[in-house]
Amino acid sequence: MDFDTAVNTIHALLEKEQPKTFSSSWIFARTPTVYNFIRVNFRTENDLVDWDRLTYALQPEYAKRWIRYKRHPAKSYEDRSEVDRILSKYKDKLYTFVTAINPEDLEIRNRIIIALVRTSQRGNILAAQELVTWLRYIVDDWIEKYYQLFKWKGYGEEIDEKIRDCIRCYKYTGSFVGYLFKTLEYSARGMRPLQAWSLDDPVGSDGATKIDFTVQDAETGIVEVFGR
Hints:
By secondary structure, the chain is mainly α. It has 10 helices and 2 strands. The protein has helices at 3-17, 24-30, 32-41, 51-57, 60-63, 80-89, 103-121, 125-145, 156-169, 176-188; strands spanning 214-216, 223-225. It has a two-stranded antiparallel ribbon. A hairpin with a 6-residue loop joins β1 (214-216) and β2. The longest helix is centred in the middle third of the chain and has 21 residues, at 125-145.
């Protein structure tokens, strides 16, 4: 048994049975071999079964059906050692929150984020605080680069609260960063900008400006700025 075989086995079962939802107990009932392979070989930094490694490898349509556990209000606690174990494991990869060089960096960054998200969802307040701090590097960069998020500029406390909301509500292992971006994008539509902006503002690092991505509809006259 190897990881690819485990993923392919689960895919085959999901395609055959098409369950509306599935979980670790669903896997155990149908293929104990895969269940035990994941349980033994994939553990989190805090020695829990890392089911996220499996669901992250599944096709998105199936990953969305994953149920981790029944939701119960998590009792808040503070355990710095849980957070430090995660950060220590990836200490040489924390730069990915500032700049991700390649797809491998993006994958590693997602693993760090998910590890902190799951620890936070179990009630560890310090994990959420740590993650908000690191994610602000990403969000602040987005606000400067993407017109969809420019309205968030100046809303520091609201950004932090929106990040905490995403941490609480995140369910399946897709891209947490993508989930956060879309949440901020949709929320920005009804916001009033605190800071003025101009079509001459730069976008990215190649000298382009917002006006380079501005188009006027010939029929309606509506002007829209499109993402890169």
